Amino acid sequence: MLASNQRQRVVDLCVDLSQRGFLAGTGGNVALRIDAELIAVTPSAIDYLSMTAADVCVVRLSDLEKVDGQRDPSVETGLHAQLLRQRPEVNCSIHTHQPIASACTLLGKPLHVTEAKARQRLGRRVPMIGYMPSGTGLLAGMVKRAIRSDSNAYLMRNHGVLCCGDSIESAIEAVETLESQALAWLRKGMSTHAHNHPEQADTLQRVRAVLGGIS
Ligand SMILES: [Zn+2]
């Protein structure tokens, strides 16, 4: 089997992300650079907890032609390819519908990263990519225009997120860091807008039970 090691690493990555709630059901997908020409990509519509290395597709980066794999590549392969073509130092790209950061995509604004450590991982600003339907060339084109060399995380309007890193581990860290920064952003917004309105106390209490830490 071609690139069996990298394909197994994609399986392990997806199991890890699924077990921690970043990949829910078949939502989300990942790509891992194999070499200068090839990438390993998750297949379309599969339960990541039952996926095997043979299910993971090997795709040519230049034209998205499938070279090996038992299934069809993810419909978002083009989106990952845009990122991996433009950022040669990036080796792993992760698209998720992770709950908190995905909720923030409804706000339609970029996320300004405030913590120094998080800035090192994500960049100073997480851009907001405009909405286009999933799995389309239109969305991949929108991503292409948004890619920046100093940003390792992107919000995709009304959809989910795209994170990347020079290794699997650093891409996972970007996913985790983005989720915690998104939570801080939501808490701050709730505190700013809700604390002067006593009639919202019940609602705020319920939100606090979910998000925690809102003063
Ligand atoms: Zn998606």
Automatic annotation (TrEMBL):
It holds the Pfam family Aldolase_II. SMART domains: Aldolase_II (SM01007). Keywords: Lyase, Metal-binding. The keyword Transport does not apply. The keyword Glycoprotein does not apply. InterPro entries: Aldolase_class_II_sugar_metab, Aldolase_II/adducin_N, Aldolase_II/adducin_N_sf. SUPFAM superfamilies: AraD/HMP-PK domain-like (SSF53639). Residues 8-186 form the Class II aldolase/adducin N-terminal domain. This is Class II aldolase/adducin family protein. The lineage of its organism: Bacteria, Pseudomonadati, Pseudomonadota, Gammaproteobacteria, Oceanospirillales.
